[in-house]
UniProtKB/TrEMBL annotation:
It comes from the Eukaryota. ATP binds at K62. It comes from Necator americanus (Human hookworm). Residues 29-331 form the Protein kinase domain. The lineage of its organism: Eukaryota, Metazoa, Ecdysozoa, Nematoda, Chromadorea. This is Kinase domain protein.
Length: 500
């Protein structure tokens, strides 16, 4: 992370900058059911024993070492806490109450937001007109306005992070500030951060982030809310990014993303005829919808389309601000006795159902990829782990590149050491591949070059390896690098800290 909140990290454990409450958590709270989970965090319902008050506790797994890939860095945890403390006190933003710390976790005690995702609430309705949709978007805007007034940029505005306070209530809450940044005027912050489907062109192009970045994401959320289609989603992440940087969207009969998703899903399910998939979908949903029925924006008002188009602007200086949006007729409503054209528009809930199903499908794909990665890592490191186990039994020590605290990097380096191009290819799904490094700053390119594995080195080069990088000792085997006659490196695809 390249901003002013970034703390210096040594090769050892990070020094805490903020002191948290170290009172044993279970003496103060009774821990209940799990409400949700992420890669390194679990959210549980908790009850304060002294008062009976209910809260949501976010248990964040701490990173034990700066070089480890397990857990969240101390700097990132402290940044999230700092942001939450700054933005508290607004009706459309989740409230942080307390922070506790154990040897393994930092626990954020948050306001309990139990109404579920906004889109789930919408799906439970038979019909939603634009007046109601605009009222929800207005609440999101008010939350964003509060953040931006404090120079906080959320950077992960998406449907999953827009919740309802409680069931049957229409009060919206913005949640999950794990990626948020403090960006004061005049400060330049660049980072590859966010969810690909919702990021703005400046994120993809690695340009300065700003409050305008949130406004683009709000445009995507509004587009989905009104249509059930995602405006920029492509078959691949690269295609999605191309659509975003080219501002390639439209309000035609069926959104590009839905057609792309249909083709992608049919390929993954090994269905040659997409019509067969549509029949399956209709059966699953009791014939309630078909991806080709009608127009996604058939009943959408011109005012709503104008609102969205003012957010999908590449130039951040011309993109609508939060105040511009709050003044827009679609949000503000008609003046005087003018007819409210928004009431004549009824949003197709079936299309929102379609979006939710695509969401669940993508989550299942991510879970499958995670399982595949674990299996590959176990297979690649099996022989080394066995050798370590045998040496331990014989009270001997051996030198290996295996680090139990960083299984992924270990697997990449071990695969390079044995010249396993197939294994390296399987591991290339990892973000940052192939420039992951261990504590000695050795990369897969160093290891492959040192072992003389030219084919593996060529593969790493084609994947964007930094061949000029030195390790911590300043070692760089230029002789091997220069003698390999590697092919011209292809133009690199965009990589970074974008979540899949």
């Amino acid at each position: 992370m390249r901003d002013e909140l970034r703390r210096h990290q040594s090769l050892g454990q990070e020094e805490p900058q903020i002191k948290f409450n170290e009172t044993p958590f279970d003496t103060v709270f009774e821990v209940g059911d799990e409400l949700g989970s992420g890669q390194f965090a679990v959210v549980r319902k908790v009850v304060k024993k002294a008062t009976g008050e209910e809260f949501a506790a976010k248990f964040i797994k701490k990173r034990r070492y700066a070089t480890s890939r397990r857990g969240v860095t101390r700097a990132n945890i402290e940044r999230e806490v700092s942001v939450l403390r700054t933005v508290g006190g607004h009706s459309n933003v989740i409230e942080l109450h307390e922070v506790y710390e154990t040897p393994s976790d930092v626990i954020l005690v948050l306001e309990l937001v139990s109404g579920g995702e906004l889109f789930d609430h919408v799906c439970a309705r038979e019909c939603l007109d634009e007046v109601e949709a605009a009222a929800f978007v207005r609440q999101i805007l008010l939350g964003i306005k509060h953040l931006h007034s404090l120079h906080i940029v959320h950077l992960d505005i998406k449907p999953e992070n827009v919740m309802l306070k409680r069931r049957g209530d229409s009060q919206v809450k913005l949640i999950d500030f794990g990626l948020s940044r403090l960006i004061p005027p005049g400060h330049v912050v660049k980072d590859m951060v966010g969810t690909p489907e919702f990021v703005a062109p400046e994120v993809v192009n690695y340009e300065a982030l700003s409050p305008a970045t949130d406004m683009w994401a709000l445009g995507v959320v509004t587009y989905i809310l009104l249509s059930g289609g995602s405006p920029f989603l492509g078959d691949t992440r690269d295609e999605t990014f191309c659509n975003i940087t080219g501002v390639n969207y439209h309000f035609t009969d069926s959104s590009q993303c839905s057609r792309n998703w249909l083709a992608l899903t049919s390929r993954n399910l090994f269905i040659e005829d997409p019509r067969a998939l549509r029949i399956q979908q209709q059966k699953r949903n009791n014939g309630r919808y078909d991806l080709d029925q009608g127009s996604y924006f058939k009943n959408t008002s011109a005012c709503a389309k104008d609102f969205i188009s003012r957010l999908f602007v590449r130039d951040v200086t011309r993109r609508a601000t939060v105040d511009d949006c709050l003044r827009h007729p679609w949000i503000r409503g008609p003046d005087g006795d003018d007819v409210d054209l928004r009431k004549s528009s009824c949003i197709s809930i079936s299309h929102i159902h379609s979006f939710k199903q695509r969401q669940r499908w993508r989550v299942s794909q991510l879970e499958q990829r995670a399982v595949e990665l674990v299996l590959v890592c176990n297979r690649v490191t099996r022989s080394v782990r066995l050798a370590i186990s045998q040496a331990t039994k014989m009270k001997r020590t051996i030198e290996t590149r295996y680090d139990p605290n960083d299984m992924v990097t270990s697997s990449v380096l071990i695969a390079a050491e044995m010249g396993g191009v197939r294994e390296l290819s399987e591991l290339s799904m990892v973000r940052g591949f192939p420039n992951l490094s261990n504590k000695q700053k050795e990369t897969a390119a160093h290891v492959a070059a040192g072992a003389g594995h030219i084919e593996a080195l060529s593969f790493l080069n084609m994947k964007g390896a930094q061949l000029s990088a030195e390790d911590q000792r300043g070692f760089f085997n230029s002789e091997i690098f220069n003698s390999t006659h590697l092919p011209q490196k292809k133009k690199l695809r965009l990589t970074g800290n974008l979540m899949c």
